[in-house]
Amino acid sequence: MRYVSTRGQAPTLNFSQALLAGLAEDGGLYIPQTWPQLSADEFRQLRGLSYPELAAKIIGLFTGNDIPQPVLLDLCQQSYAGFNHKAIVPLIQLEHNLFVQELFHGPTLAFKDMAMQLLGRLFDYVLSQKGQRINIVGATSGDTGSAAIEAFKDSKYLTVTILHPYGRTSEVQRRQMTTVLSSNINNIAVEGSFDDCQDLVKAMFADASFRDEVQLSAVNSINWGRIAAQVPYYIYAALALGAPDREVSFTVPTGNFGNILAAWTAKKMGLPINVLCVASNHNDILTRFILNNDMSIQGVKPSLSPSMDIQISSNFERLLFELLNRDANQCRQIMQDFRKNGKMDIPDLLWNKAKESFKGLALSDEETKTVIQNCYNDSLYLADPHTAIGIATAQKYRSKDVPMITVATAHPAKFPDALKQATGILPPLPLALADLYDRKENYQILPADLQKIENSVRAVILKNNF
Ligand SMILES: *Cc1c(COP(=O)(O)O)cnc(C)c1O
């Protein structure tokens, strides 16, 4: 399996190279050269598999010869062994033909663990094979940082520096990052906003001499490895509800368009998916596109569902590339104009094509709280704010004959304030995290100053004798 850049000016890579590279050199995103295909019979043969077995089969179609299949199976089994639920991705029925697939039973209680737990192990395997070491830097508004730290905390082959905005993440989110005391983990609270953190990460990648000096790498959701690791749960849920002999639909609470791109990938592979619904909060660039062909950047306003507070949905570029019949020149041009003008010009023909697969809905914070309350009253289900937006979207777009599945992206205990306000109930943290508030924290507070941040990355590398 080979990977090409959506902008057509970077070398074609195999899976492990694309994994370590993250972003392509030309600013594009790596995407498989061709989509692996499964026939109806091949889907039927997957029906009896456990989640890790299914995951290894599906992800194996993307890793090709890079990772031997028995190794991949072993890594998948390890990745999901620490989950708090025996089913790993349990399917819960809320209403007739309306289901929730819970993706939050991993160590940090958000769906990011589904991919990140495997990514940590894949990085270690590939780096140990190549005898290479790298250093990961990333910015987080909460969930990505904790999932990455949890997944990479025991690696001998890499260090992880995560920047979070000082005082602007929830306490649960901060503690999940800062109570991991491994020597290869470096937490920095930046005196600034999430955008400042992201700008500092971009500045480190743009600083060529620093980038080469420290072998920089990234694990944000533009990494194809993360998308690949998110495809299996869509197939697993669909098989449980009758696919491939019956269509299913999915709703995905989305920010960076990563998770829903994985669902769309499953459709490309042959899974009979009827519609894919994008669920947004008031930062609604994606739903504005789907409903009105309006892909214009507006300022980010904080919401009850902070993991979807995003201005630009990076992974959309992969869909665009495909809508353009893989014309990389045109894709590059549209993306460059988008950066310049803050608005993406998408021909109506392509927009209509996108609308055949995607629906969208955006909810305000007030509406979100009402949905949380109604879900609890109607089905005794406690949904976190991200999932609640998904449930409302699923209710709007479901049809009589096709099962609709919303993916639940965070555990309700991650957002205690919103849950308390909406239902009067304070959902308890799972046992594994019950002592989170008593654990010792370690992080440094630094100004948004590139030199100081780079020196901190150098210090953690030195400490680990790389
Ligand atoms: C990251 C995240 C999302 C958004 O996922 P994308 O892949 O960026 O679309 C939604 N909900 C939660 C809880 C998240 O952590």
UniProtKB/TrEMBL annotation:
Q: Which InterPro entries match?
A: Ser/Thr_deHydtase_PyrdxlP-BS, Thr_synth_N, Thr_synth_N_sf, Thr_synthase-like, Threonine_Synthase, TrpB-like_PALP, TrpB-like_PALP_sf
Instruction: Give the keywords, sorted.
Output: Amino-acid biosynthesis, Lyase, Pyridoxal phosphate, Threonine biosynthesis
Molecular function terms, GO-annotated: threonine synthase activity
Domain Tryptophan synthase beta chain-like PALP, chain residue ranges per copy:
93-331
Under Pfam families, the record lists: PALP, THR4_C, Thr_synth_N
For this protein, what is the EC number? 4.2.3.1
Any coiled-coil regions, as ranges: none
- Catalytic reaction list: O-phospho-L-homoserine + H2O = L-threonine + phosphate
Threonine synthase N-terminal domain: which residues?
A: 2-80
- Pathway the protein acts in: Amino-acid biosynthesis; L-threonine biosynthesis; L-threonine from L-aspartate: step 5/5
Cofactor(s) essential for the protein: pyridoxal 5'-phosphate
Which PANTHER family does its entry note? THREONINE SYNTHASE FAMILY MEMBER, THREONINE SYNTHASE-LIKE 2
Q: Which family does it belong to?
A: Belongs to the threonine synthase family.
- Report what the protein is called: Threonine synthase
Q: Which organism is it from?
A: Commensalibacter oyaizuii
Q: What is the lineage of its organism?
A: Bacteria, Pseudomonadati, Pseudomonadota, Alphaproteobacteria, Acetobacterales
